Amino acid sequence: MKFESKAHRPVIEMREDQVDVIVEGFATTFALRRAAGWAMVSPYHLKKWLEQGENDTEKGIESLYAQLFSKVGKALSDRAREFLEKLQACPKNGTCLQWLLEKCFKNDYGSDTEEMKELIDLYSKLLESYKRLADNRQGALTHGREMDTESD
């Protein structure tokens, strides 16, 4: 059993039979803590296993942790694709699906992503331009004078 230096917690090795259960937990619950509960492991260890998997994947090491990391990523991507397909099929009733995408896939669909911030900024600028255009148009129609709305 290895010990981690900061927390002095024992780092428990992941077993091969846990991988598919953890992946199913993520695909069902979308959250690390819930997936850990699904697989009956601690969130701390699951987080460490995923971090190890990401590191192994980046280094090209084929390990059980790299498999877990890849399978969890694929499962979450598949669920996001399912939500997007459902949203395209029923855009009028898609509010709940949009909410799920925003909450479950915050980095990609959340309101605080860089793309969303850029869209909001662009929308604000367009709205300001439209208001200025409408004000200028109104001024041109009245030749800069107040319109007399009471005369025929």
Can you walk through the features of this model?
The protein has helices spanning 16-29, 32-39, 43-59, 64-89, 95-104, 106-109, 114-142, and strands spanning 2-3, 10-11. The protein has a two-stranded antiparallel sheet with strand order 1-2. With 152 residues, it is mainly α. The termini are far apart. The chain has two domains: 2-101, no CATH class; 111-146. Helix 1 (16-29) crosses helix 2, helix 3 crosses helix 4 (64-89) and helix 4 (64-89) runs antiparallel to helix 5 (95-104).
Offer a few descriptive terms:
2 strands, two-stranded antiparallel ribbon, 2 domains, mainly alpha, 152 residues, 3% strand
Short account of what is shown:
Helices cover 71% and strands 3% of the residues. It has helices spanning 16-29, 32-39, 43-59, 64-89, 95-104, 106-109, 114-142, and strands at 2-3, 10-11.
- How is the quaternary structure best described? single chain
Strand order of the largest sheet: 1-2
Q: Flag low-confidence runs.
A: none
Total count of strands: 2
Largest sheet: 2 strands, antiparallel
State Rg: 26 Å
The helix fraction, in percent, is over 70%
What's the N-to-C terminus distance? 92 Å
Q: What count of structural domains?
A: 2
Percentage of β-strand residues: under 5%
DSSP helical segment count: 7
Element order: H for helix, E for strand: EEHHHHHHH
Give the helix/strand class: mainly alpha
Shape: elongated
Mean pLDDT: 77
Strand and helix layout:
Layout: E1 2-3, E2 10-11, H1 16-29, H2 32-39, H3 43-59, H4 64-89, H5 95-104, H6 106-109, H7 114-142
Helix pairs in contact: 1-2, 1-4, 3-4, 4-5
